[in-house]
């Protein structure tokens, strides 16, 4: 099986869990770092990352070869770091979008690539800024 498989089935009308590999997660981080805006991912992107990590934990648990188990543990540790960095970068981008849009009557920065799980962050920031500036 190749680690070059990226995300499959990015159609929003389907609710099939996308397939992620370590290389795909790494490439996603690289793209998020080099672009100013949010990248577009399937709605179940975070669930796919959670499944990758869960599957990797299960692989480690079932692996009898100590060398292979150590290699899988390194992959898991790196994947967790990368996943957390993706969340941090995307959260910062969402905060920037929400802040900009909170000061405008209409969305000046497009929020279409914000995933459903990220909308609470966006809405909370926008709401609090609007409350803060309401009487100013």
The dominant shape is elongated
Radius of gyration: 18 Å
The string of secondary-structure elements, in order, is HHHH
Content of β-strand? under 5%
What is the distance, rounded to the nearest whole angstrom, between the alpha carbons of the first and last residues? 59 Å
Residues in helices, as a percent range: 55-70%
Classified by CATH, the class is Mainly Alpha
Largest sheet data? none
Which structural class is indicated by helix and strand composition?
A: mainly alpha
Task: Describe the protein's architecture and organization.
This protein has 136 residues and is mostly helical. The protein has one domain: Methane Monooxygenase Hydroxylase, Chain G, domain 1 (Up-down Bundle). 63% of the residues lie in helices and 0% in strands. It has helices at residues 22-34, 45-62, 66-102, 116-133. The longest helix has 37 residues, at 66-102. It is elongated and about 65 Å long.
Name the descriptors.
136 residues; mainly alpha; Methane Monooxygenase Hydroxylase, Chain G, domain 1; elongated; disordered N terminus
Topology:
Elements: H1 22-34, H2 45-62, H3 66-102, H4 116-133
Briefly characterize the structure.
With 136 residues, the protein is mainly α. The chain has 4 helices and no strands. It has one domain (22-133): Up-down Bundle (Methane Monooxygenase Hydroxylase, Chain G, domain 1), CATH 1.20.58.
